[in-house]
Design brief:
four-stranded mixed β-sheet, globular, mainly beta, Gyrase A, domain 2, 118 residues, 8 strands, 41% strand
């Protein structure tokens, strides 16, 4: 799982395995090890409203998505899920696609790119 933050926008991109795990009600997480602290971010499922929510506590971002919504998303061709408009924090959860140009990252578990060019 990758995270991108810009202002009040948080974007997560998940591999095929991670999407499958979330679709089955599981969770995924990553850590970044700084010299004196660990920053964590995770995606989990929940059973209530709103469909997507987030919290930040103890050097960790936790984004939570409704489990039924996550299952539908994981089993479809839908690329992403977005938090409801009107909230100051905008959250986007997406399936991560393979790049069309060579990269040094291992992309074997990413979704095939539906585009032919960048």
């Amino acid at each position: 799982m990758k995270i991108r933050i810009l202002g009040d926008r948080v974007r997560l991109r998940l591999s095929q395995t991670e999407v499958e795990r979330i679709g089955q009600g599981g969770s995924v997480s990553e850590n970044t090890n700084f010299p004196n602290r660990i920053f964590s971010y995770r995606l989990v499922t929940h059973s209530g409203d709103p469909d997507i929510r987030a919290e930040y506590a103890h050097d960790a971002i936790t984004i939570s998505v409704n489990g039924k919504l996550a299952t539908q998303w994981a089993q479809s061709d839908q690329v992403g899920l977005e938090s409801a408009s009107g909230s100051k924090l905008h959250i986007l959860i997406e399936k991560d696609f393979q790049c069309l140009t060579d990269r040094s990252e291992d992309e074997s578990d990413l979704f095939p790119n539906p585009n032919e060019t960048c």
